[in-house]
Amino acid sequence: MSIGARVKEVQDRVARAEQSSGRKAGSVRLVAVCKKISADLVREAYHEGLRDFAENYVQEALLKMAALNDLDIHWHMIGHLQTNKVKSISNRFSLIQSVDSEKLLEEIEKRSEKTQEILVEVNLGDEDTKSGLSAHELKALLQKVQLQKRVVARGLMFMPPMDLSVIEQAQYFERARELRERMLREISAPHNLDDLSMGTSHDFEVAIQEGATIVRLGTAIFGPRS
User: Fold this and answer.
1) Torsion of CA 66, 201, 221, 121, to 10 degrees
2) Using CA atoms, how far apart are residues 132 and 155, in angstroms rounded to an integer?
């Protein structure tokens, strides 16, 4: 299947999920995950109408940015970000989705020359193999964000386990949404936390049903990685 056909299929599925859950058409942002995907294929997906692309690794992202600097791409960082890499990406990403520590937050603030929007990554299942802070650490970090001048929190990011049933997926995403809603009640902040980034290729329709505003799709758009 061509990238064009995959993009069309994904867009149709997103639209149906929005409609079936009573969401406004176009309320879910589709982010194409291009880890280990060539710049040429990213360019092809761009010409099919996609504008948001996500990378997991800084060096790969910088190479692709250079190769595609003629395109108006909104870049997202979704992988674990080390503090020593922040300087090289300062204000290069529209959204850093994987902020998971006070140290990283402070480094982004220090290196940013203008407003940098972020999502705070939460490891809701406390999985050892995944990055992200635990749910009980979230409030303290969000309160810390309020003290920054250039970093603005726009929401939360979640990466659910891969082996959940559809019912378990829904329960996980419901917990994520409820956590965001609790933070909105408990924290007086200038940050709206509107975004919930929490759907991937194998579960994005369930995520949309439960309130996702951003879905991060790789395989569904580019096919299986070699």
Assistant:
1) -20
2) 14
Q: How far apart are CA 189 and CA 142, in angstroms?
A: 8
CA angle 186, 190, 191 (to 5 degrees): 80
pLDDT in tens, 161-191: 888 899 999 999 999 999 999 998 888 766 6
Here the CATH number for the domain that contains residue 139 is 3.20.20.10
- What is the Cα–Cα distance from 214 to 200, expressed in whole angstroms? 9
DSSP codes joined into one string, 187-219: ---S----EEEEE-TTTHHHHHHTT-SEEEESH
* DSSP, res 67: H
Helix, strand, coil % in the chain, rounded to nearest 5: 40, 20, 40
Question: Distance (Å, rounded) from C-alpha 212 to C-alpha 177?
Answer: 8
List b or e across 89-99, with b for residues whose CB sees 16 or more CB atoms inside 10 angstroms: beeebebbbbb
**Could you give the 3-state DSSP secondary structure of residue 164?**
coil
Full domain range(s) for residue 164: 3-222
The closest of 163, 182, 170, 162 to 211, measured between CA atoms, is 170
How far is C-alpha 51 from the chain's CA centre? 14
Whole-prediction pTM:
0.95
Split into its structural domains, the chain has a count of 1
Q: What is the mean pLDDT of residues 210-226?
A: 93
Structural contact between residues 221 and 45, judged by C-beta atoms closer than 8 angstroms: yes
